[in-house]
Design goal:
By secondary structure, the chain is of the alpha+beta class. Helices cover about 35% and strands about 20% of the residues. It contains 16 helices and 17 strands.
Length: about 475
């Protein structure tokens, strides 16, 4: 078989024949990064040839122009006596639809965009964000001067705003922060959520929910609902966690008493800020669930197109869902502007020899799972010494692993799987005395480490031990 001089990849697609349904694919490529489609070529890059290539040379440009409003380049190629077509699809600056529907090529799949995914896509194509939408009925009287002052104090302290900003009135400051539309002079949603007197008047899902749970999500012990201007949200959440939900092990540095949170505060604050600025405010509340052995933090809104959780762990560009909110958080010194958030989280946890939080896309949003290692240690009557040296901590950790290896959670799960490969998460939770979320977290970790794998579907399948 003759191969053409191209390799199929994300931006190169091979098709044996032309079908009008491939207009969806052209639409999806145009809405993404553009691409080249070769017709008359199989999936392996082998040349098959097109019998009607010359006719399609006219039909494809006409159909894309009529159905998509899109101009594509169609070239007739000949190799070893066979014809094939090379269609070059440009990336567009405006959204392209096919029969009223929007498609997007992501990875190797073609997706029909609906709901919040469609809203995000349209705003991104139009170079705007949800928080830049304006509210005709809102006035400067809806802005809380105390929240504005809170921001100014933080931004000036960080050196990201000049002290002269104190001499400006609220309207002038909001104009400089791009929180008032230049076109119509109306307040943006970002302004009202960041500094509003009554933020729920403008968005009913703006609150941050914290719950303390027992052995399962059905066992809710206590909860808090934090409602305030977004600029104050990180501090309010940390304050609530410190007073009601997390422990602060005491240690001394010389003569000074120290009570740091069990979770590295800088990393925790970074996760909270990320949840606030990346949240899809057309979805539901930000939710933090505190269990005995772990904490989950979830915010609605999927990752940007072509972004994965793995990519977030590496160096990457920052693509905040709500750009205006993110800019104000940056100026206040709450976040970095260059996509270093997850690097900061990792570094702060590793500095305290704690397991780095695990991130995943779930239920239409992003969830962080944080293991409560210090709380677990105290529950087990182990001393948590914040002044311990690296050598001391490493030795302690190694000793603890060695002495408890036989009865560790992982070994108990493996033993249960050996006895019953079809054991469920609920059965494991009852057997080990952990929450369902705790079992899920451990099982996911074991799968990613190549210890176990799932064979078959969730219902009717079974677990296989790999090592």
């Amino acid at each position: 078989m003759t191969k053409i001089n191209a390799i199929e990849c994300q931006n190169v697609e091979f098709k044996r024949i032309w079908k009008d349904e491939y207009l969806k694919w052209i639409c999806g490529f145009a809405n993404a990064q553009g691409a080249v489609m070769c017709f008359g070529v199989d999936d392996e890059g082998n040349l098959c040839g097109l019998q009607n290539a010359k006719q399609l040379l006219e039909d494809i440009p006409n159909k894309t122009a009529t159905s998509l409003g899109l101009v594509v380049d169609v070239d007739l190629q000949e190799q070893d006596g066979m014809d094939y077509l090379k269609v070059t699809i440009p990336q567009t600056n405006v959204p392209v639809s096919y029969k009223g529907k929007y498609y997007y090529r992501s990875g190797s799949t073609l997706q029909e965009l609906t709901g919040t995914a469609l809203t995000d896509f349209l705003m991104r194509k139009l170079n705007t964000t949800w928080d830049a939408s304006t509210v005709p009925s809102a006035t400067i009287d809806d802005i809380d001067p105390k929240a504005v002052q809170y921001f100014l104090n933080a931004a000036i302290r960080e050196g990201r705003i000049n002290k002269s900003a104190r001499d400006e009135n609220i309207e002038q400051l909001l104009h400089h922060l791009h929180l008032i539309s230049k076109e119509n002079g109306q307040l943006t949603l970002a302004a009202l959520l960041l500094f509003g007197k009554d933020v729920e008047q403008w968005n009913m899902t703006v609150s941050f929910r914290i719950g303390r749970f027992g052995n399962s999500q059905a066992d809710l012990i206590t909860q808090d609902r934090i409602v305030c201007p977004l600029i104050e949200m990180p501090d309010k959440v940390i304050e609530t966690l410190r007073s009601k939900y997390l422990i602060s092990p005491i240690h001394y540095e010389g003569l000074y008493r120290k009570e740091p949170l069990e979770i590295p505060e800088e990393g925790l604050r970074e996760m909270i800020c990320n949840a606030v600025i990346h949240k899809d405010y057309t979805s539901t509340f930000i939710q933090m669930k505190v269990f005995d052995d772990h904490i989950t933090l979830w915010n609605g809104g999927n990752l940007p197109p072509n972004y994965t959780v793995e990519k977030l762990m590496e160096q990457h560009e920052s693509h905040p869902r709500n750009r205006l909110i993110a800019n104000v958080f940056y100026l206040a010194g709450f976040i970095e502007a260059w996509g270093r958030g997850y690097e900061i989280i990792r570094d702060t946890f590793e500095a305290e020899h704690l397991e780095v939080p695990m991130f995943e896309e779930v239920r239409g949003g992003v969830m962080a799972t944080i293991k409560r290692e210090k709380f677990i240690a105290l529950q087990n009557k182990d001393k948590v010494d914040g002044t311990a040296s690296t050598t001391k901590k490493t030795t302690k950790k190694t000793t603890k692993k060695t002495t408890k290896k036989k009865d560790s959670t992982v070994d108990k799960i493996l033993q249960a799987i050996q006895e019953n490969p079809q054991v469920t998460n609920k059965q494991l939770a009852e057997l080990l005395g952990l929450s369902i979320d705790g079992i899920y977290w451990n099982m996911k970790k074991m799968r990613s480490n190549g210890i176990i794998r799932r064979v078959g579907p969730d219902k009717g399948g079974y677990w296989e031990i790999l090592k």
